[in-house]
Amino acid sequence: MSHENLQRREAAERSALISTTSYDVSLDVRQAADPAVPGYTSRSVITFTAEPGASTFLDFIAGDVHSVFLNGRGLPVEDVVDGARIRLDNLRAENQVTVTGTALYSRSGEGMHRFVDPADGQCYLYTQYEPADARRVFANFEQPDLKATYTFHVMAPAGWQVASNGAEVNRTLLTSDPATACWDFATTLPMSTYITTILAGPYFKAEDRWEGTLDDGARLDVPLALYCRASMAESFDTEELFRLTKRGLDFFNRLFDFPYPWGKYDQAFVPEYNLGAMENPGLVTFTESYVFTSRATDAQYQGRANTLMHEMAHMWFGDLVTMQWWDDLWLKESFADYMGTLAVDRATDWDTAWVNFANKRKAWAYLQDQLPTTHPIVADIPDLEAAKQNFDGITYAKGASVLKQLVAYVGFDAFVAGSREYFRTHAYGNTTLEDLLAALGAASGRDLSGWARQWLQTSGISTLSVDIAPGGTATDDDGVPGQVVIVQEAVDPVTGREELRPHRLRVGSYDFDASGALVRTAGLETDVAGARTELPQLAGRPRPALLLVNDDDLTYAKVRLDPVSEATVRASLDRITDPMARALCWTALWNSARDGESPAAQYVDAVAAFAPAETGIGVLLNILDNAATAIERYTPAAARNTVRSTFMSAAAAELGRAAPGSDAQLAWARTLAALGRHDSAALPRLRGLLDGTAPVAGLAVDADLRWQLWHALAANGQATAAELDAELARDTTASGRAGHATAMAARPEAAVKDAAWNAAVHGNELSNQLLTATISGFTTAPPELLAPYVEPYFECLQGVWDGRSIEIASRIVRGLYPAAQDLADGMRPEGHPVVRRTDAWLAANPDAPHALRRIIVEQRSHLLRALTAQAAVVPQPAP
Questions:
Q1: What are phi and psi of 429, to 5 degrees?
Q2: Peptide bond preceding 131 in cis form (omega within 30 of 0)
Q3: How far is the C-alpha of 477 from the C-alpha of 752, rounded, in Å?
Q4: Packing angle, helices 399-410 and 412-426, rounded to 10
Q5: Which residues are 75's β-sheet partners?
Q6: For site-directed labelling of 84, which of 97, 176, 182, 365 has its Cα 20 to 30 A away?
Q7: CA distance 709 to 695
């Protein structure tokens, strides 16, 4: 047995038997640049206490285990190693175990990832462990509640940069090999295995330091460093990143009143990263997509700042105080998501952080919370595979949204005071939900158990609407409401029970002023509870043009506009002056389209009409993406070409009208390229942008945009392999290589699709980044080219899951699901052949791994939603 999927029960039994004290880990990566060398020597020396006579196990996913010594006695490797576990018997009260083996380099972004830069041939290493991949690098007790101190030693080429959680304390050239050096790093404070880290390679490094003064007068001096690949150094805006880092450290040290505990603060931007970032104490790792080598919008820079602040918040929420098991993953991710947005809002120059959170981040949560696999924020995580799948919109964005509701409920000062006490009480320890509630309850003077049960321990999303009873007679409505009621509908999709949650929210009244702008004329803050909440304050007043429930976005709920308000929004959305109110109305229209309450074409019409006036670039990018989804997934096939063509004409016009060099201009260009994958009429214009024969003033057609244009041309059979190879020769970067892989796989030829399928499903040569790029290109195709792969998809699922790492298997299973389907005339969504084939697979595989079944169930749900939206009937005008 492989024993890779650790059960929660097993982890609890192990932590009841042992306590870890320290690790001393040595890694030898000096031959990493040789692709013929698959692994490296790893040696762990672990000290721990145990119940005398007890038995337990270590975790180590290795190429080979060379030796195991327990308390000075060598153990027979063949007897104690069983897959990913090493058995330890007859333990003493005080123990030391030493494990030496060969760990393997990764191309999946799990464990020690090895990347060769196509730009210059240089080799780069970094580690990524969450939730349980430290065991791919060194033997350990892989669970978050067995914290210990760590001392790392790394042998690597002398000319490399090498870093870890602790500061470098010594570097020695080997006498026997002067081309090799040994780095020794300072011992860390206690932490969990999954946030330890190693970085090694010829990275570019920039240095600075932050000096701060806390409210009590204490001085802090924190060394700072930034890393990226050498070939990207020219695009590395280190001055701006250091500026944001210093602002964040100022903000969080004062807010939390607990000095930053991890010594230095390094940040590394690394290739082929599976996540946005990871909160390793003292050495945070980020996707190098945040090093903008092509033109980026202000929204992208703000998104990067949000991620930077999110990871910094983790130094306290997650690293200093860590959840006991992955059930309480929200204790770190929900808080970091909330705190990241709060820090951007309060510690940077951006003033649209909460608008972007409402429009994009919460949209992720709303999507996830309507899937049949949704779960409570405090989830049931029985094993590591389930933990891997729970890094989702519930744990991050819904959790953050609920925390925003909690702040509105208890007050910001009480929330901060409770957080400070939580850090002081549990520093370097592990906690559960009850520990946090105790701290926040004490600070606020409120019993939060009921709030926690309703918000954290139930699933699903509330829908809020307004029921307005006319105040006039049945034949003469004078426009003055006789009664205004907020109606709440909420059913937990997991239990089937009605879950009517308490909401602290604001209801905004908006009317047109003398200039024609739609402005807030009144606001009412109120508590909503139960199925119906009457608002007597609004009865008897003239009905506003727009009555906006959840104004200022205080609570977590979908909002349905009343008929008068919806008519106002569809006619005058661009005249709403408040950016948050405008974003909330965009969200209401999008939810209506996604839910099949209104035809998707109506949403596309709204975007065409009002997006040109949208001043928030983050909102603009989001609604343009939504419009593309509405066209390609939610619009009936018979109407799709017309809807797309009309919208593309509007987009082309806006590209020409946008200010030269503006973010809006770039947004419209990207939209044209994306929709052009499905519309050959746009190809001459796209080709003209590529070859410069039809330039747009101020538009920089740089590498990223060029590959998007090539993707569109290739998908329509208008790009040859020779042309794509020539483009790759001019762009030898990692992102260029991914763009090339996507465009090559997008060509609408049966042989091309077959080769891409085999490379993704049956081959092992593609790295994580190139696998995703190939799948993206493969799925960009007319239905007739993809139809032959429906049955092979379902036939390959179990083999893919058993034969690949969970990261790679998840990408294949999710990315290749045959989702691009249309509803035929007279067909019910549930009767679509792919829906029925999915149901048959689920019925035939009840014992398939839970994580695999979850992906399939979610993909079925996405498809069913799209088919249901296609079936939405256009409302008929009243007779």
A1: -120, -165
A2: yes
A3: 64
A4: 110
A5: 68
A6: 182
A7: 13
Give the Cα separation of 61 and 108 in Å (integer).
Answer: 14
Distance in angstroms (rounded) separating the CA atoms of residues 855 and 841: 13
Tracing tokens 């606020």 back to the chain, one arrives at 444
Please tell me whether residue 379 adopts helix, strand or coil conformation.
Answer: coil
pLDDT band for 825, please (50, 70, 90 cuts): confident
Q: Which residue is associated with the tokens 């009243």? A: 878
pLDDT tens string 306-321: 999 999 999 999 999 9
Strands 39-50 vs 56-59: parallel, antiparallel or unpaired: unpaired
Query: CB atoms < 10 A from the CB of 79, how many?
Result: 10
CB burial string 138-167: b at 16+ within 10 A, e below: bbbbbbbbbbbbbbbbbbbbbebbbbbbbe
**C-alpha span between 43 and 65 (Å, rounded):** 10
3-state DSSP assignment of residue 188: coil
Name 205's Cβ contacts closer than 8 Å, sequence gap at least 6.
Answer: 161, 225, 226, 227
Secondary structure of residue 207 in the 3-state scheme = strand
**How many residues are recorded in the chain?**
879
Read off the pLDDT of residues 550-577 as tens digits, 9 standing for 90 and up.
999 999 999 999 999 999 999 999 999 9
Assess whether 311 carries a catalytic annotation: yes
Active site residue: 142, 311, 566, 727, which one?
311
In angstroms, how far is CA 708 from the centroid of its own chain? 22
60 DSSP 8-state letter: -
Q: Are 861 and 819 in contact (CB under 8 A)?
A: no
Give the chain's end-to-end CA distance (angstroms, integer): 70
Write the pLDDT tens digit of every residue in 398-414.
Answer: 999 999 989 988 999 99
Sheet holding 518-528, edge to edge: 518-528, 503-512, 546-549
Burial of 642 (0-12, 13-18, 19+ CB in 10 A): exposed
The residues, any chain, with a CB within 8 Å of residue 549's CB and separated by 6 or more, are 464, 465, 466, 486, 505, 507, 559
- Region 268-286: what's the mean pLDDT? 97
658 in Cβ contact with 696 (< 8 Å)? no
Take residue 123 and report the two structure tokens written for it.
């080799």
* Cβ proximity of 421 and 442 under 8 Å: yes
Q: Give dist(CA 178, CA 159) in Å, integer.
A: 10
For residue 18 the two structure tokens come to 């042992």
Helix axis angle, 734-746 to 750-761, nearest 10° = 130
- In the chain, the amino acid numbered 422 is Y
Report the phi/psi class of residue 431: left, alpha or beta, with left for phi > 0 and alpha for psi in -120 to 50: beta
**Rounded to whole angstroms, how far apart are CA atoms 113 and 274?**
11
Find where tokens 């709030």 sit: 451
